[in-house]
């Protein structure tokens, strides 16, 4: 039957080259026997429609041929958990390295000469925008290379190109003692933090840190167009503000590093209370530095010889007001910290008391 | 097909898949070629698609459980299969395993 010949020819194209003829010869013999029986039942040859229905019921040629191949994986079930673990790790580190490299490139570019501040700002915005647009491609690149490497390992092991020693495993050895502790509920209850959320926090943490580091050279990033108005005023900030500013940058860097470690150690779903508490405690230090400034000199005159200009509020009163404001903020921050610690302490006491019953 | 019917069909196929190799080895205690094997299994209540059975025969042969031979019959070259000595041993052990599983299921029900 011509249709059967065409069907077998189509199946043959998708068979492994070495075994094509053998398999097709066997398949032909079986299908011709089946066809004979059908025609004997009907007492006549199959009609074209009946022949089509019969071949269709056998299955598409590519699918029929695929069943003669061994089951193949790009990355098999034995290797996949390791692959997925490495992929997650690489996603974080690829982003970290990418952000650091781009931050350095932007800093180098901006250290060059620009005709106007507007040109420098435009160059900064273009650089940041370009880095953000290229970021997904950096991730895809890392993911592609990891997939290729693991696919090569799978191929090598499946085809005995690389023979594993007897008893060797693709998974690393593990010890129950090394397992992380049970994760507490996220602070305040509710759904635990997702991996995507934790990665996004780290990525935006790096962006925030990069932005903060650029502020001293480009105050426009913080104050916007207001920086030009401030330059016209006779006042300037006291050096203590730079101490305060770098303390805040350092605290952010420590918090970011902590989050990176939590992510790498798979503890991103745990309670953040310890982290928040430590940051708040150390955050009181720069506040304390500001409060201890002599004569509350937060704002200074650019030119002392010019005498004190009157802008509605004498400088002394301005500084006094700033001091009182900082004192209130310090008191609120301390009260909030004590409240959080007492809440956490009470919750722990309740869990402990409940466990003892 | 509803979700429940789809689920049942998947589980049913999974259950049958586990029994196919045992059924084929059982039937090949007598020599058959692909089509007659399929007819013999169907006659005993074990319907198997050609596209499942014929590759399965090749796989069992590559695992050393079957021996095959090309022979002319009714003016047509056909590939006949039968159990190899290793195949007979494996079949006996699989049959014992099958009997034990059957007993366990009966105890559960």
Using brief descriptors, characterize the structure shown.
heterodimer; A: 357 residues; mainly alpha; two-stranded antiparallel sheet; 12 helices; 2 strands; 68% helix; B: 109 residues; alpha+beta; Arc Repressor Mutant, subunit A; 3-stranded antiparallel β-sheet; 4 helices; 66% helix; globular
Characterization of the model:
The complex is a heterodimer of chains A (357) and B (109). By secondary structure, chain A is mainly α. Chain A has twelve helices and two strands. In chain A, strands 1-2 form a two-stranded antiparallel sheet. In chain A, helix 1 (2-13) runs antiparallel to helix 2 and helix 10 (240-264) runs antiparallel to helix 11. Chain A is elongated and about 115 Å long. The model of chain A has no long low-confidence stretch (mean pLDDT 81). With 109 residues, chain B is an alpha+beta fold. Chain B has one domain (21-108): Winged helix-like DNA-binding domain superfamily/Winged helix DNA-binding domain (Arc Repressor Mutant, subunit A). The A-B interface holds A 23, 25-27, 29-34, 58-59, 63-64, 67-68, 70 and B 33-36, 38, 49-52, 54-55, 58-59, 76-79.
